[in-house]
Amino acid sequence: MKFIVTIIRIIVGLLFIFSGLVKANDPLGLSYKMQEFFEIWNLHQFNSWSLFMSVMMNAFEIIAGFALLLGWRIKLFNWLLLLLIVFFTFLTGYTYMTGMPRNCGCFGDCLPISSKTSFLKDVVLTILIGFLFWQQKHIKPFLSKTLTTIKMLGITVLSFGFQWYTLTYMPVVDCMPFKKGNNIAEKMKMPANAIPDSTVITFVYDKNGQTVEFTATEFPADFKVPPYKLIKRYDKVIRKGSNNEPPIKGFALSGESKIDSTEIVLNQENAILLFIENFSIPVNKWENKFAKIFATAKEKNIPIYLVTSRTDIVAKEIANTSFAGIQIFSCDFTAVRTAARVSPNLYVLAKGTIIDKWSHHGFTAALKKLESYPALPKKEEVKIDTLLNSAADSLGNTN
Q1: 133 with 107: CB under 8 angstroms?
Q2: What's the order of all strands across the beta sheet hosting 228-239?
Q3: At the N or C end, where does the chain have fewer CB atoms within 10 A?
Q4: How confident is the model over 166-180, as pLDDT tens digits?
Q5: Is the pTM here over 0.70, yes or no?
Q6: How far apart are CA 118 and CA 114, in angstroms?
């Protein structure tokens, strides 16, 4: 029995450590997933706590996994693990049964798994942890009490320190569709192996005060108007597809003219994008470094743009800076926060391919890299909005 307990203890411990580390690589990703649950359950008041809860949960999974492996305070952690896995099983079961949200984010964006797989995994883990809880008398520390405590303190510090680093300098392993080497335009396309949802047109009619529903191929034999009165029609999904969403969704750039400028930006020989989700990091914290990047880009004739979902406040925030004249593009909030895990975030593109990216802490390195780029041929500076408006006017005159 002791051998079986040891094997299960190692499996469960390693799985929790792995799960915690994968999510600790991107704590914001888990916090966004939590917000999805809060939106579904109408618990909006917890949105502001989601990042704190994400960091604590990730740290706990890592600490609990090591505690199980080392045999540290095993009664306490057996209880905590049992309660946690029951809670997780409820969440994954809810996701599997309702389809909301699409997945639980159990292993973050680096290892996406289906809601069914997540639920079955948690059911198995519940059984295994229940077994360990029953047979905890066989779980003994591998090391002395003092040495185990010292190790656990170190693990605790590292579990929080790692998340501080990823929240400050960007994830260590970039699993986002906006990672270096990806072409944005290509990632906006539907996957080649996508299987669309199968749908049928469904009609809803009122017949003598009763609601009747049928498809376009199943009209009732006595159908005529009246007594049938159309209420609505909709597409009913009869078979869910798979892999039928592009990796990058909602990435559309538009300026004051509201004309889509995405294709023009992504076709530039080189372009620099400054993504800003919000101004939680004040402008004065990165203004001087970005001002040098902005000036260098201008000298090298490399177009540089600011991309945000907060166009209502961005102009005011940068009004007194040397880069106040930068062209500002509006973009979908979800796309911006996916691209900018740490805001502000700087991208260098070559024909839409991401060749470099930095958080604001890396702006010095970004400047050095930019200085090594060759200058592009000088062109008369025309804002994209102005160019598009002129083209639209020309077409209008032609017609």
Answers
A1: no
A2: 210-215, 198-207, 228-239
A3: C
A4: 999 999 999 999 999
A5: yes
A6: 6
